[in-house]
Every structure is written in structure tokens, then in C-alpha cells.
Specification:
single chain, 491 residues, alpha/beta, 6-stranded parallel sheet, elongated, binds uridine-5'-diphosphate-glucuronic acid
């Protein structure tokens, strides 16, 4: 049964719930701290002792605005604790949230469910009282039902006291806004199989519900699908506008104006129509691949085939930035270059691209997959930086938060710790992540630091006229770059 309601608060007569959160990565650590902020006693569990020790000292191992403050506040108040022990959480909590990762399997499209399965099995083996296990991780449809069976068989073998039920409660938080999205979500979706499970979850979310947050109570399959459908839709929106970029890059036109104009139609909406180097991160890319893998397993190969196209469009944006770098630098040294091709440089640079890029100093502004995050998983920016480096460019990489994670992945790139160090002496600047620090650069100040005034805006966040006025050759995704053969770059 599916019901939609809002503004329903929980009974105030029940004792405060004790909450455990299994997995303390981006999702789990945020959820744990926010549950403490909502007034619950919380025990976060992770199998990594180093992570548990750091979090217990109030140290967050990743960048997420607002989260360090919440972590310190609730570690100090004693409301938020961390452990590696399933015995501890199993004997203590009423509700166990699972927030472990479901990454893409190496060399495959499907999601790797081993961590989520291990979490359910370990909880089932250690819970010694009545409890509700609530999955938050993004999983392929059908997973909750499989996990319910795993829970039942493990409990039967373990013969421990207490009745344990499963629910699914997908998470829609965005990195960079994780605290806000958790404390004031735009909707709450729960897949439940009993009134008891729904009531417990209503108690957990009593505060956001009291402010009118829509509450969608449904079955397991719908809850699982809501999450992947949302991410697939967002990925499609981004690739849709980026496909139009390929047209405007060829025939002219302004991709931003196009997005604004269609975005005024409330049925379309302007959000997630920012053309640029495309989507990355730990969610959108792997989720659209896992969805294709899952429907294929279900014998529905054609159903999500369009997502393969969305993936391709997205990845071609990275080729396009490398192509543009070649064209701009060829233009800089006086070569007559023709209009942009698409995907010409590719993941493996052509000898012609290497010839142009070799030894040129390129300032890479941004390697995080988006601003307000230090996450470089499947980051388009880091991929482009590495491709330019592989083609022989001398890259100076600066990201306000992402350098350390990027250096773990690609240690050979040249990393610098300030914007000025990145751009000084540069032949070309490539803006790849739209941090405020980059959006607010003064073109005249930058012109004094670079060797050659060339800039590629791969996120469409700079004012082309201001950069051209300051003497720059400006190129941007979704805009035609003509090179010397056909006159100046389009603004
Ligand atoms: C995404 C979803 O937005 C969340 O709702 C979801 O909970 C989360 O995945 C998840 O599954 O856990 P997130 O990965 O934090 O959140 O990042 P987004 O803000 O969605 O951005 C994803 C990528 O799309 C970024 O690389 C961003 O630069 C890119 N993007 C976004 C564009 O290229 N254009 C746009 O208009 C918007």
C-alpha cells in the first residue's frame, strides 16, 4: 500500500529511540550526527578502527560544510559515540540505519552489495532485542527482499532474543549540503512491511515531519526505485543539456540562454541544466550503470538503454575539454585550427594533441567532482587533469579541498596549495570545478600572473566579456571556439 501524507508528528509518550548507524562514510557520518542533532542518542559503527578513533575525537575524515561543528557538538555532549563492535550496537539500539557504500563492481556496471549484505548479516547475528534495521544505501531493486530473507535465515540460526524487522529509507542528500538535506529533507520515503516499522520511522523523523515534509510510505521495491529513478533523472537532465552543447559548439548559439529559456517552463525547470564538463561523484555515474545492469538481469535490456547514451554524452564532455585545450594552445602559437570536433582527443591523446600540449603549463582549477566537496570519485575535473598530464602538459593543480584525495589517486600530477601558484606562468587556465574562489577571479589580476592569457571555462561560470576585455582568449563548453582560421572565439 502506498500513502502520501505530510505534517504528521509522532506520539510524544514514547521513550526516545536509540539509534545506531552502520557505516560512517559521507552518508553514515552525516546521518549519525544529524540524528544526534534531532535529539537521539546515537552509536555510529564502522569496521575501520582508525575512522572510529578519529570520529570519537570529533575529527571528520572528509570535507562537508557544517558537519564538523555538529560532530564536535554531539561527541562532546556524549549523545554521539562510535564503536567497531556489533555486540555494542546489537544490545543497545532500537533502530539501526545502514549507510555503507554500494560502489560499482570493478570491471562491471553492477553495484557491489557485499558491504550492505555484511552489515545486515552482522546485525542479525548480534541484535539481542526488538529492533528495526533500516537500509539507506542505494541498492538495485529487489535487494531489500533478498536482505529480508538473509535476515530471517540468519536470525533463525542465531536464535537470539528479540524480533528484528527490515525497512528501506533511501537517502537523497547532496554532498556539500548533506547536513541541510538530512535535517530538512525535501521528502521522506520509507519502504515498510508493517505499521510498527512505519511508526518507528515516523518517530525518528518527527521533527522534519512536523514542518510539513512530505512522507511517502510505500513498499520495498518502490522505495528502492525512487532513489535510482531520481538519480537517473538528474543524470539525464545534465546530459540532455550537454547534448545540446554539442550542437551549439558546432553551429553557434548560447547554451546558457537556451537552458534559461527552457527552464522557465515549470514543467522543465532550470535546475540541473548547467552545461559543462558533466556529472561525476560517487552516486550519479555508478547509479545509472547499476540500474542498467539490474534491468538487464530482469530481462529488460532495452528499458534503460537510453542511460548508456547519457553516460556517453557525459564522458564525451571530458574529451571536449581536452580537444579545446589543444585548440586554444594551437591558436595561441598561431596555428590555424578548424572548428572543434567531438571526442577527437579521447582518453588516449593523439600524436597531434601531444605535440601541442607537450611542455605547456596548464593551471587546473578544481579537481573535486563539484564545489563544497573534497570528493574526487569519478570526478570529470580530475580525469581531464590526468589526461592533459598524460598528453605531456605541465599541470599545476589547485582545488580548495580536493588536492589530497586527488593526489592519492594520481600522485604524479603537480599539486599546488594556492590559486596564485597554479596560475602564475600558465599558458592556459582550465576551470573545471566551480568553486567561488574561481568564479570571483578578477581577469585583470589573473592576466598579470599568467604567461599567456588563455582560459577555458568548463563549467560556464565566468563572464566571457570580462575575460575577453582583459585580453584573454576565452573558450567555454557549449560555445563555439573558432580559432584563428575563422576569427575570434565566440563570447
Ligand atoms: C546526487 C543527488 O543529487 C542526490 O540527491 C543523491 O542523494 C546523491 O547523488 C546520492 O545518490 O547519494 P551528489 O552526488 O552529491 O548528489 O551531487 P549532485 O549535486 O547531484 O551533482 C552531481 C554531479 O552533477 C556533479 O559532478 C555536478 O557538477 C554535476 N552537475 C550538476 C552538472 O554538471 N550540471 C548541473 O546542472 C548539476
Amino acid at each position: 500500500m502506498t500513502s502520501v501524507a505530510s505534517n504528521q508528528s509522532a506520539s510524544s509518550t514514547v521513550a526516545p529511540l536509540r539509534i545506531s548507524v552502520v557505516g560512517t562514510g559521507y552518508l553514515g557520518a552525516t546521518h549519525a550526527a544529524c540524528m544526534a542533532e534531532l535529539g537521539f542518542e546515537v552509536l555510529g559503527l564502522d569496521v575501520d578502527p582508525a575512522k572510529v578513533e578519529a570520529l570519537s575525537r570529533g575529527e571528520l575524515p572528509f570535507h562537508e560544510p557544517g558537519l564538523p561543528e555538529l560532530l564536535i557538538k554531539h561527541v562532546q555532549s556524549g549523545r554521539l559515540r562510535f564503536t567497531t563492535s556489533y555486540e555494542d550496537v546489537g544490545a543497545w539500539a532500537d533502530v539501526h540505519f545502514i549507510g555503507v557504500g554500494t560502489p560499482q563492481k570493478p570491471g562491471e556496471s553492477a553495484a557491489d552489495l557485499r558491504y550492505v549484505e555484511a552489515a545486515v548479516r552482522s546485525l542479525a547475528e548480534h541484535i539481542t532485542r526488538d529492533a528495526l534495521i533500516v537500509g539507506k544505501s542505494t541498492v538495485p531493486v529487489g535487494t531489500a527482499t533478498t536482505l529480508k530473507d538473509l535476515l530471517a535465515t540468519t536470525r533463525a540460526t542465531a536464535s537470539l532474543p528479540g524480533t528484528v524487522e527490515l525497512a528501506w529509507n533511501p537517502e537523497f542528500l547532496r554532498e556539500g549540503y548533506a547536513v541541510k538535506d538530512t535535517l530538512t529533507p525535501d521528502r521522506l520515503v520509507v519502504g515498510v512491511e508493517s505499521e510498527h516499522a512505519e511508526n518507528l520511522l515516523r518517530q525518528v523523523y518527527a521533527q522534519p515531519l512536523a514542518t510539513g515534509t512530505p512522507w511517502i510510505s510505500t513498499d520495498f521495491a518502490t522505495a528502492e526505485l525512487v532513489k535510482v529513478a531520481a538519480n537517473a533523472f538528474l543524470a539525464t537532465k545534465i546530459s540532455f543539456i550537454n547534448a545540446f552543447s554539442e550542437i551549439t559548439e558546432t553551429v553557434g548559439g548560447d547554451i546558457g540562454t537556451l537552458a534559461d529559456a527552457i527552464g522557465h517552463d515549470p514543467r522543465i525547470g532550470r535546475k540541473f541544466l548547467n552545461a559543462g564538463v558533466g556529472f561525476g561523484g560517487g552516486c550519479l555515474p555508478k547509479d545509472i550503470r547499476a540500474l542498467q545492469a539490474r534491468v538487464s538481469e530482469l530481462g529488460l535490456d532495452r528499458t534503460m538503454r537510453f542511460l548508456a547514451e547519457m553516460d556517453d554524452i557525459n564522458l564525451r564532455r571530458r574529451d571536449r575539454v581536452v580537444d579545446l585545450a589543444v585548440q586554444v594552445l594551437a591558436h595561441d602559437r598561431g596555428d590555424a585550427t578548424g572548428p572543434a570536433g567531438h571526442g577527437g582527443a579521447g582518453a588516449v591523446p593523439s600524436p597531434a594533441a601531444v605535440e601541442v600540449l607537450h611542455g605547456r603549463k596548464i593551471a587546473i582549477l578544481g579537481v573535486a567532482f563539484k564545489p563544497h566537496s573534497d570528493d574526487v570519485r569519478d570526478s570529470p575535473a580530475l580525469d581531464v587533469a590526468n589526461r592533459l598530464y598524460t598528453a605531456g602538459a605541465d599541470v599545476a593543480v589547485y582545488d580548495p579541498q580536493g588536492n589530497a584525495n586527488a593526489a592519492k589517486r594520481f600522485p604524479r600530477l603537480g599539486y599546488v596549495d594556492t590559486l596564485a601558484k597554479a596560475i602564475v606562468g600558465a599558458d592556459l587556465i582550465v576551470l573545471l570545478t566551480e568553486w567561488d574562489e574561481f568564479k570571483t577571479m578578477d581577469p585583470h589580476d589573473v592576466a598579470r600572473l599568467v604567461d599567456r592569457p588563455n582560459i577555458i571555462d568548463a563549467r560556464n561560470v565566468l563572464n566571457p566579456a570580462a575575460w575577453i576585455e582583459a585580453g584573454f582568449t576565452h573558450a567555454a563548453l557549449g560555445h563555439r571556439f573558432r580559432g584563428l582560421a575563422q576569427g575570434p572565439a565566440d563570447a
